[in-house]
Amino acid sequence: MEMHEIRYFLAASETLNFHRAADLVHVGQPALTRAIQKLEAELGGYLFHREKTRVRLTDFGCLMRTHLDEVLQRSETAKRTARSFLSLETASLTLGVMCTIGPLRFIGFLNAFRERYPGVEVTVIEGAASHLTELLTEGKLDVALLARPKPFDHGLKAEPVYRERFGLAFSTGHPFEMRNTLHLTDVRGEAYLERINCEYGDHIDGLCRDIGFDIRSAFRSEREDWILAMIAAGMGVCFIAEYSASHPGVCHRPVVDPEIIREVSLVSVADRLPSPVVSAFAKAVKEYDWQTAQ
What we know:
Elements: H1 3-15, H2 18-24, H3 29-43, E1 48-50, E2 55-57, H4 59-86, E3 91-98, H5 104-116, E4 120-127, H6 129-137, E5 143-146, E6 156-171, E7 192-195, H7 201-210, E8 217-221, H8 224-232, E9 238-241, E10 250-254, E11 261-269, H9 276-287
Parallel strand pairs: 3-4, 3-5, 7-8
Antiparallel strand pairs: 1-2, 5-11, 6-9, 6-10, 6-11
């Protein structure tokens, strides 16, 4: 059963005249007649009573008309949906973003993406890097913005987006504000505020142990906004990436010797064929000027 046969039958059932039905679907009458005969053979019964002066639907034809009209409507709906999806007129994207990534750097990009693809609905899921990786591999995320000090697993494809320096965040007026750079050892003697979900936490702890001291936390929180608020209140200092230290009253200075760099990447499952919206999003990420993004 082919869709053009169904269209020809429905046209004939509407006009009850094979000649007018052929004109309606822009084919010759012999082609329409052959298509309807083929449909009758496939369905196993006559759809029309063919009389000398008129054509009437059989009872079987009346029954099939309802079902075949529904088939045609569903086919047209599927075509419209497919066109909308492939042209990104109507599509959705589920994006995972580490909770340790500050939102300000992405506002400009997301706004530009929205202007370019107004039909795409973007859902942002925030979480720790390990949790987002699980959601990504389970197919609950399309792509994710992630970073980690070690290479990603072989099953994941990571495309670098931008790099940023780790440093110490402290309150306005702190003596650190007079310096351009800081060292790991500068954290000694300071009340430390620990970001529980920091994906570089163990890495930084290890670097500190290598030079002979352990970081001891005064406060710990999984909420980035709480940590930043406590820093602004002068309750302590914290190691944090430079673009995430965006809070009134919070200053940031990069750590050097050793310099700690975080590379944020757009991560997807390596062997998963990207949808049109994922491909468009990845292309937009690559083309965006992250160097001047604020």
